[in-house]
Amino acid sequence: MKLFNIDGKFAHVMSRIFDLAVLNFLFLLTSIPLFTIGTSCSALYTVTIAMSQNCDSYIFKSYFKYWKAHAKRGTLLWMALLLFGGFIILDRFLITYMNHSFQYFQIFFSTLLLLWSMTVSYVFPLLAYFNSNFRQTLKNALFMSIRHLPWTLLILAIHLLPVISIAIFPPILSALMLFFLITVGFAALALLNSYIFEKRIFPVYEIDPAKTERI
Description:
By secondary structure, the protein is an all-alpha fold. It contains eight helices and no strands. Helix 1 (9-30) packs across helix 8 (171-201) and helix 5 (104-129) packs across helix 7 (149-168).
């Protein structure tokens, strides 16, 4: 049957699922030292953006190529964002125990936390998509996340859906979601976001798709 032909849709889907499983495993493996999560996210998005452009490549080789290329910037960006995010969350938590005269700061830090989350959602796809320095990457991430707010909210929802599902679903469904994340989930969600970045956001800035091979 044509459906099961090596060039058929079924074979293509199974091949893509296998690629995502391998990519997901590599992402989890290289994220075990928590300080490397930024580098791993950057490498993950570089591969998934290439997938969204139908640019097939060897997953293992490509992932580690980009992981090494983004190691310094990815780690610096991740550590800076992690420290700043921790500062916001800590302050937001402490304010809840203060008197009402400090309650207005809750709004301030809640807004700051939202802007931080929006920026984080863009930083590593931007680092994956084109070459820019530390400051420019953060600046562009914040600017784009605000300019494309509807898409940004969708991207944030994609990020939060698995976490919320695990927290509120019955145990059996939470276990299934956790299994999904461990097997293909992080790579699949990154690929879904990559389609949004590639088709709806990055073209606005006339970035040449060929620049995915720019390291």
